[in-house]
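Exercise: predict the fold of this chain.
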Amino acid sequence: MSTTTTREQVRWRGLHVPYIAPWTAGTTLPGQIVRLVGVGGTGIGYADEQPHDRWMWILWTRQSLARGRGTPDLGGMHSLRQRQAVTHMLCGVCGASTFDSDFARWGERHLYVARAAQGRPIAEGERTVMAPVRRPCAVESVTDCPHLRKGWTAALVSYAQGWGVAGLTLDPRTLEPLPLPEKQLHMVANDDLAVRWTIAMQMVTTLHRVTPVELSDLVLSP
């Protein structure tokens, strides 16, 4: 079982900055959006499009890396690092693999922690852009993260299935952005034709075989 994927940990004003957090030096890179005909039909692309601009045939936002430079957005997500964490089941806080000794001890399940100001638990089949977290990082996060301190919920999850993307969907006629849901991005399923007109910014998965838990029980259990 792989347990040792290591990434440099970054702190800012005493806080452990999550691996998936963006930094102010990491700007969105320019790219002219054009209408084009691709595999399966018409959609959007970059005028100077490169192979790495797409993942699973979906157009992704261009964002520089810049981890550790500037000021972190503790409530945000860097597009590439979020996708890496969700795809490879890396801890969203430290960037290490969540296929660790706890994963084996929990019956091959991953831990997810989400903000829940009203106390709503993580639901079966829930759509999320969150990455899994390792147990020590989860304990640290609910204490130190200003967003999670307002309320959080945790669950063990057997598997996360790719569902779609969250991003900015454009009007197919004008290529102007469609109105956004309040404080959210558009969530578009992989099999929805609207995904061809979407600039993806985050990967969305659905969570399955979900068991709500208390972190204190996970820490104290043998």
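Check your answer against the key: Helices lie at 79-88, 101-105, 135-144, 215-220.
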